Backbone:
DNA sequence: CCTACCGATCGGTAGG
DNA sequence: CCTACCGATCGGTAGG
């Protein structure tokens, strides 16, 4: 549980591998960072219950008992990754420009969300599926962060209605669900090479104007 | 593996509980049926790797060794449930009336999909998430069924474009993805009491006409 | 970071 | 459907 506090800005869970010869001066990853990254990768691939501490140790090239010098228990890793996912999505909204129209903000929010899914696919998968294996103090915190995120998306919708960019009679609850459906379903079809901004902009007119012929 | 063939029409996975005093003459559930239903329930709740054969035995009130008189291995159950999910979604499309306009068929397809999610929530969750723990002969069959389902939805879109009900310049690939996003994301917000047809009809104008103000 | 080890539980089998 | 049992692995600890 305690290790959750160790997440610094940027969460350090972006990638578990060093870049190739084109990138220069990338600092070495500490074992603690590699542990987080490998845990995200394995939890995403095999699931939390399908990944053993021994699997993690093998991935790091150390003995499994050594894992416990970094964490107190396996669930620490799940809590850390799930909350890092929440941080990633929140941060993506935080850095949105605020001198633009509400509808434009909403468009950029879709871009931002799909971008996080694409750039942190492992973390996003844990954020979507594995969080439910969290036990209660961490689980409650996670659920609160997720609800807060949904509220922030809803607020963007409300603002765009107030400004007249979206229909005044819009079914906000379901419009938010529609937005989140598209945004979260991205994990199924996005691969590391996907251009998230391009995809978001391709979905945007579908959402805005619909699929109908009129 | 072999037990997959035992799925009859309707799959028998609808519910693990007998009805209350209002329903009459409901035939007793065999242990084999209860095993499937409990497995779907537990796999949906705790995940495939988070559910032990002992958990299943406890849920049925028998010893875990007795489970093996019904299945050859734990994965049989996963294959059976995942493929029962595929059957459920396909069947829902099969029974759609074919003397109606393409766009109306598409609307009913959304109803049908959300209805399956609602009525077989446990099976739908396994169909969405747990299938990936399937090993290869069963996994390939599952993936083929899933692709076939997506193709059927795509065909409905193509037909509705041909008939002029949907825009001729529609981005079909992403429109299908939008449809499936909404349909599949339903598992997160639907509860046993949800009116699936009502929900589908509430999402429909959002999809058709969009959320924009024009 | 290691070796050595713990009790509990895992999926599964033998043989009724 | 049961009792009895299997080797392997689980998360985790002791003690360097």
Residues:
């Amino acid at each position: 549980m305690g290790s959750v506090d160790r997440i610094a800005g940027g969460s350090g869970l972006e990638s578990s591998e060093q870049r190739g010869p084109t990138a220069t001066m990338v600092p070495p990853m500490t074992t603690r960072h590699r542990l987080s990254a490998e845990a995200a990768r394995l939890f995403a691939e095999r699931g939390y219950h399908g990944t053993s501490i021994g699997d993690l140790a093998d991935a790091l090239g150390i003995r499994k008992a050594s894992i416990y010098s970094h964490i107190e228990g396996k669930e620490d890793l799940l809590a850390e990754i799930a909350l890092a996912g929440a941080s990633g999505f929140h941060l993506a909204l935080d850095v949105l420009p605020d001198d633009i129209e509400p509808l434009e903000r909403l468009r950029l929010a879709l871009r931002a969300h799909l971008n996080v899914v694409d750039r942190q696919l492992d973390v996003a998968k844990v954020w979507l599926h594995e969080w439910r294996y969290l036990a209660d103090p961490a689980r409650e915190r996670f659920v609160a962060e997720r609800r807060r995120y949904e509220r922030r998306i809803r607020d963007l919708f409300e603002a765009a209605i107030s400004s007249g960019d979206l229909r005044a009679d819009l079914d906000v609850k379901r419009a938010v669900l529609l937005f989140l459906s598209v945004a979260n379903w991205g994990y199924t079809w996005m691969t590391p090479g996907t251009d998230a901004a391009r995809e978001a902009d391709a979905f945007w007119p579908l959402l805005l104007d619909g699929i109908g012929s009129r």
Q: What stands out?
A: Chain B touches chain A through 35 residues (CB under 8 Å). Residues 52-54, 64-65, 67-68, 73-74 of chain B lie near DNA strand C (CB under 10 Å from a C1').
